[in-house]
Specification:
The chain is an alpha+beta fold and 479 residues long. The protein is 48% helix and 24% strand. It has three domains: 105 residues, 2-Layer Sandwich (Beta-Lactamase), CATH 3.30.450.20; 108 residues, PAS domain (Beta-Lactamase, 2-Layer Sandwich); 158 residues, 2-Layer Sandwich (Alpha-Beta Plaits), CATH 3.30.70.270. It has a five-stranded antiparallel beta sheet with strand order 2-1-5-4-3, sandwiched between helices. Helix 11 runs antiparallel to helix 12 and helix 12 runs antiparallel to helix 13. The chain starts with a helix and ends with a strand.
């Protein structure tokens, strides 16, 4: 090794000994500086996070404060609500809050209700189970009908809705209900009325204002033969018999559209085509503003009654043997025609008494006599024009009223024809016992002013015909 190399190595070792501490110090400084920067960055970030956290805490405190204020305001609003409100623990049903309306509804002090179980005020244990199951399963309950028990032991029906919520940091149930006693009573009343209508013997029909049928009861089907499938969506026209003019129905509609009740008897037609008499009442149904919105019709089948009335009417006004008008109907008809008669429109009355009938009736018996009277009635009717009115006054006496186209010659011709027809042979009577007729004729207003006087004049004329030889007519006032 040369001298220079020796010097260089020696110097290098000395230099290295000097530089190593310097490098170590520099390295430590470098590390500390880097860590310091990292620390400063970390501190900066920590400070930012602390600042944000502090802000979050402040905001949360503010939010909680606002929430509590909101809950207080909410409770104040609920307290003044006109309907009952209850807030309970979601799980235990412990009452946490009630408003004044709830206390009033239950007849309790509010302080007595707090911490009690809300479901203890429910009358039906089944309702409690349904509520618990539904609220736990779905978290809400809508329009649930429940019967509540008041403090005094009385009950009332309520419609209740409930939903899950958080109140005062507790899992709660918000319950609101309203008394539905009136609605319940109305519903029960309507149900009762519905059953009564469905069981009624009279038919019930409800229609829209245009007459479209929207409801019928069972009795309607029994009366008419039409069921719901036949008539719903149709109108009363389906029952028309064709017995009435359009003006009849126009008058009916005018009445009910004016808000009045129409009552009357209608001849209608059943589904099988059979005609029947129907007693009907149609009443308008109005809304709260007085506007007609529906019509209700009640119908009663009065066919049997009507037939009985007609039978009684016939018995009261018609001769049972000959089916001619009797004495009662004769006077009713005569009075009616006398009111229309005057000097230019006269009326003729014939009074007919059979000649020889008493002897035949006494000889052959009443049965044969009745048969003869039936034939006589038929012959008289056939001898008179269509506008003539024939009646049997009793026994063997008959009358004829002629009120149209009255003139002396036509009256005489009609009387002659009646005498001729009555004088024809009868199967029951031998030729030796002929039956004839004496007829008295009186004119109105020429010789009488009323029905009784006119009949008296005709009767007088009839006796004059008998006095003149029977089997002829005599015109009162003609000699």
């Amino acid at each position: 090794m040369g001298l220079l190399q020796t010097i260089f190595i020696k110097d290098f070792e000395q230099t290295l000994c000097l530089l190593i501490p310097l490098f170590a110090v520099a390295w430590l400084f470098y590390r500390q500086t880097k860590e310091l920067k990292a620390y400063k960055t970390l501190c900066k970030e920590a400070k930012a996070e602390l600042t944000a956290l502090n802000s979050d805490i402040t905001q949360k405190d503010e939010l909680l404060k606002n929430l509590k204020n909101s809950e207080q305001k909410f409770k104040i609003i609920l307290d003044s609500a006109p309907f009952p409100v209850v807030i309970t623990d979601y799980t235990t049903s412990e009452v946490l809050f009630v408003n004044k309306a709830t206390a009033d509804a239950l007849g309790e002090n509010r302080s007595n209700l707090i911490h009690k179980k809300a479901i203890d005020y429910w009358a039906d244990l089944l309702d409690r189970d349904i509520y618990i199951n539904e609220i736990m399963k779905r978290g809400y309950l809508e329009n649930f009908e429940v019967k509540f028990k008041r403090k005094d032991g009385t009950y009332f029906w309520a419609q209740m809705s409930a939903t899950r919520m958080v109140c005062d940091e507790r899992d709660s149930a918000f319950i609101a209900f309203m008394n539905i006693d009136k609605q319940k009573q109305l519903k029960e009343t309507l149900k009762t009325h519905s059953v009564a209508i469905e069981c009624a013997a009279n038919g019930f029909i409800v229609t829209e204002i245009d007459g479209t049928i929207i409801y019928i009861n069972s009795a309607f089907t029994e009366i008419t033969g039409y069921d719901k499938n036949d008539v719903l969506g149709d109108t009363h026209r389906i029952l028309k018999s064709g017995a009435y003019s359009q003006s009849f129905y126009e008058s009916l509609w005018s009445c009910i559209l004016c808000g009045r009740i129409w009552r009357g008897e209608i001849l209608n037609k059943r589904k099988n085509g059979e005609l029947y008499y129907q007693l009907t009442a149609i009443a308008p149904v109005k809304d709260d503003r007085g506007k007609i919105v529906k019509f209700v019709s009640i119908i009663q089948d009065v066919t049997e009654r009507k037939q009985m009335e007609q039978k009684l009417q016939k018995m009261a006004h018609y001769d049972q043997l000959t089916t001619l008008a009797n004495r009662t109907l004769f006077f009713e008809y005569l009075d009616e025609k006398l009111l229309a008669a005057n000097e230019s429109r006269a009326l003729a009355l014939m009074f007919i008494d059979l000649d020889g009938f008493k002897e035949v009736n006494d000889t052959l018996g009443h049965e044969s006599g009745d048969s003869i009277l039936k034939v006589v009635a038929k012959r008289i009717t056939e001898s008179v024009s269509d506008d003539g009115f024939v009646a049997r006054m009793g026994g063997d006496e008959f009358t004829v009223i002629i009120s149209e186209s009255v003139d002396i010659e036509s009256i005489k011709e009609c009387a002659s024809k009646i005498i001729e027809e009555i004088g024809k042979p009868y199967p029951q009577v031998s030729s030796s016992k002929a039956i004839g007729a004496s007829i008295g004729i009186a004119l109105y207003p020429h010789y009488a002013s009323n029905a009784k006087a006119l009949l008296s004049k005709a009767d007088e004329a009839m006796y004059r015909a008998k006095a003149d030889g029977k089997n002829r007519y005599f015109l009162y006032g003609q000699g």
